[in-house]
Write a structure and sequence with these properties.
Blueprint lengths: L6 H14 L12 H8 L3 H13 L3 E4 L3 E4 L8
Antiparallel strand pairs: 1-2
Helix pairs in contact: 1-3, 2-3
Organism: Micromonospora humida
Protein name: GntR family transcriptional regulator
Pfam family, one: GntR
Length: about 80
């Protein structure tokens, strides 16, 4: 029997898989929460949980009022 995996974890893994496959590249903007919720047939809250965890882990970066993007390599500061 396959163990139950919460939908937010499946969404998180799907986004990670798309990044690993090169479908999503550093700097790419993700669809809106509403669009992702429709794509995964779930609520915005579920999508936000997956996105927030990916932001906290540094995989994605949120830009207030602009959107969520795939994080690039660390920026060099001079």
């Amino acid at each position: 029997m396959v163990p139950y995996v919460p939908l937010w974890r499946r969404i998180r893994q799907d986004i990670l898989d798309r990044i690993s496959a090169g479908i999503l590249k550093p700097g790419d903007k993700l669809p809106t929460t509403k669009e992702l919720a429709e794509q995964y047939d779930t609520s915005g809250v579920t999508v936000r949980k997956a996105i927030d965890i990916l932001i906290e882990s540094g995989v994605l970066e949120g830009r207030q009022g602009i959107g969520v993007f795939v994080a690039g390599p660390p920026q060099q500061t001079s």
